[in-house]
Amino acid sequence: MTKLPTWADVVLVPVISLLLAAFVAALVLLAIGQSPIQALNVMVEGALGSAYGWGYTLYYATSFIFTGLAVTIAFHGGLFNIGGEGQALLGGLGVSLVCLYLPMPHWTMTLLLAMLAAMVFGGAWAAVPAYLQAKRGSHIVITTIMFNYIAAALLIYILVSVLRPTGSMDPASARFPDAVGLPKFHDMPFLQDLFLKYGPDGLLKLSKEGLPTYQRVPANVTFFIALAACFGVWRLMWHSRLGYEIRAFGKQEKAANYAGISSFKIIMIAMILSGAFSGLMAINNVMGQAERLLQNSAEGAGFIGIAVALMGRNHPLGVLLAAILFGFLYQGGASLGLETTIPIELRTVLQGLVILFTGALDIMVRMMLGWFFVPKTATAKGAA
Length: 384
Description:
The protein is an all-alpha fold.
């Protein structure tokens, strides 16, 4: 297969894959008697047409950035971490313990402790499958999948038996103190004017007394932490000795061992870092949005992170862009379900098509493009 130029591999292949996914999605809509143009307009308006829509799009994207980075780190170490969902659940447990039992006078201090707890809990949950692979040869894909179910069962037990408030029937923790609530976008002075411009169709609503009040959106300060995480992963993987060792081990384990790189060390470090970033996702939805620990706090973001990493070519910048795309699909898909007769499950179809063309059929797209990038020398020899 012809090697593509870097710009074609990074830009052209994902764009063509997206166009193919959109084309097939249009055919699906036509097959069920719906208009693809109408569906696209509703999705764009619902996800990007107002500050309210942007608030939800960026909220979803924030979670996907963390889980996408988690998969990226493991992938560069030659590991396929499918346990992001369970690691995010345990990260949420760490966040809730800090917020409930170690509240600080100001949210900034609680945030630092909650981030540390989320990373420790998520990393510790990933360390067990890592050890089983490094020492016992257990396949990381199988063990991380199994640990998702164990994490879910463990979390339900803790919620019902330990954290559930007395007299409550809901399998959830108590609400966090108001002092630990993270600032939302519409609470930030430099973003308030943007939200006010949208009037009744955006965030500004009239209360029962006729006074203007805000609809709360879940996008919060965690988005900026996610951006910093992208930069941090880039520095780690491409500008540090540890990152070089992880990438070298992922490319060729035997050669890395010959160069003195320990398999046990890299497997453990890569998976612990991966689990730590999955755990960090809980800052966004547990501390930033729900403000309590719920049974399904991960919201499926652990699995979406796999698609985000694949589409982002396992690079932090690509992960950021892919996460925003999937945030658009989530919020736009919700608008489809609310404003049209198109079933909301179409969102899952769209996600599946994007995963199909950017992952499973990636080689097909590369082979198609290969015909346009055949070296001139090869063309001349063929003609001769």
